Amino acid sequence: MTETTQEIETAQETWMPQETGTAPELFNPFLPGFDENPYEHYRMLRDNNPVQEHPMGFWFVSRHADVSALLRDARLSVADRNLAPGPMRDQYEKLIANAPVKLVSLLDSDPPDHTRLRSLVGKVFTPRSIAALEPMVTELVDEALDRIADTGSVNLIDALAFPLPFAVISTMLGMPDTNPKRLLELTETLVIALEPVADPDVMRSIVEAEVELSGMMQEVIAWKRNNPADDLLTALIQADHNGDFLSNDELVAQILLLFVAGHHTTVNLIGNGVIALLRHPDQLALLRSNPDLIGNAVEEFLRYDSPTHQTRRITLTPYQVGGREIPAGAMMIACLGSANRDERAFGPDADVLRLDREQARHHVSFSVGAHHCLGSALARLEGRVAISRLVSRFPKLALSGRVRWNGRINLRGATHIPVSV
């Protein structure tokens, strides 16, 4: 049993309320079959209880119009310190109580800190700098496909989807010689913080991983200051806005954000996208007959089976959404996965994979507004190159067994995609 599985089982026992007559209308990620397909549950919530106050202390928002509106609303916070007393505040305080490292990234900062961080990091994540990475990404993909061809039958997550974004991030940062296995182990632990956390032992492991990772990254930054190069980390160190630079702690936070959130979302984009294609042979045939469709296809993959299912906002004042008033200091969970399947936004075939869907790009998988993901162009590039070259290289590509999912509620993706080529 993995640490993630243990955490989810603990959450299942302690996090969810007891069954009541209204339980079917409450968000419940522990319903039978949710792991394989959460979208039917999301549809029920959109239809019957789209803005709900959950007994565990948060508000759950599931329709596209409401999710899009709150993501764009500059009056809302992403800083957990603004939570009012209650279960969500208790969880936050338990998580940080013994953490000697206090890192602030773009994900959890409000203006003016967010504005400053984004302006500095945005100087590095430009469309031109991301586009320049395509030859490197293509080379890494082709090397992985060569290994797959030699083997003939693989778990696509292990063979392509997982190692590719990790290698891309490491290469683009210009990481010096480190212990990549240990770095990967620690980031795998840290990513659990993006899920509901109730087990004190898991909380401790997350804090310990962050401390160890922070120490590793401080050493990397110190080395890079003495050995600058033509790479992303050097550019982040040297990013200047009117004489302002990122501090060491800020640099660590942005690097860890890349390795944790940036890595896993791209794994899920590639894995979930390939699963969707192989389960829809008509769309696979369409892509093979029209390779130029890959750009829009990636947007449809992002919509159809979201790499990230939830993000949060915190109210600073009473807030109106979907006809409900949410009090100040409340945690709102915006369900991106549900919003992306909303028939009100994408039509009656929202549950259908359609690579030529005109509104595919209206998905909210990378958020919208001030917190739109700065790494979205990189994820799109990797998804486009990996999936297009995979399906063109292997005309007999097919699932050869049962897909296994990671059991995560937020960063939902597969751990095992058996394919034959």
Automatic annotation (TrEMBL):
Region (Disordered) location: 1-22
Organism per entry: Steroidobacter gossypii
Keywords for the protein's UniProt record, in alphabetical order: Heme, Iron, Metal-binding, Monooxygenase, Oxidoreductase
Protein name per the record: Cytochrome P450
Bias type Low complexity, positions: 1-14
Keyword Metal-binding: yes
Ranges that cross the membrane: none
Keyword Oxidoreductase: yes
Names of the cofactor(s): heme
Pfam families named in the record: p450
Family affiliation: Belongs to the cytochrome P450 family.
